[in-house]
Design brief:
alpha+beta; 3-stranded antiparallel sheet; 2 helices; 5 strands; 74 residues; two-stranded antiparallel sheet
Length: 74
């Protein structure tokens, strides 16, 4: 299931704007990462008018805590 920018924005409206954003990665050996920068990469998609947003992985912070892993459904 693809996530759209609109869906992401609606979900994030309910979260404290000062909360740190991290990336959970690799369910079988879960790690957490920061983001490379606040500026996402936006490219044209395959269909006219379609855009794709890439959030760039930053440095590895460490292992994803057990409760984070459970919240991700891993």
């Amino acid at each position: 299931m693809a996530v759209t920018v609109g869906e992401l924005m609606r979900h994030l409206e309910e979260i404290d704007e000062d909360a740190e954003v991290r990336l959970a990665h690799q369910p079988s050996w879960p790690f957490e990462y920061g983001l490379h920068s606040w500026n996402p990469v936006v490219l044209a998609g395959g269909d006219p008018g379609e855009e794709i947003v890439y959030i760039v992985e930053g440095r590895q912070i460490g292992y994803l805590p057990g409760e984070g892993k459970e919240a991700c459904g891993w």
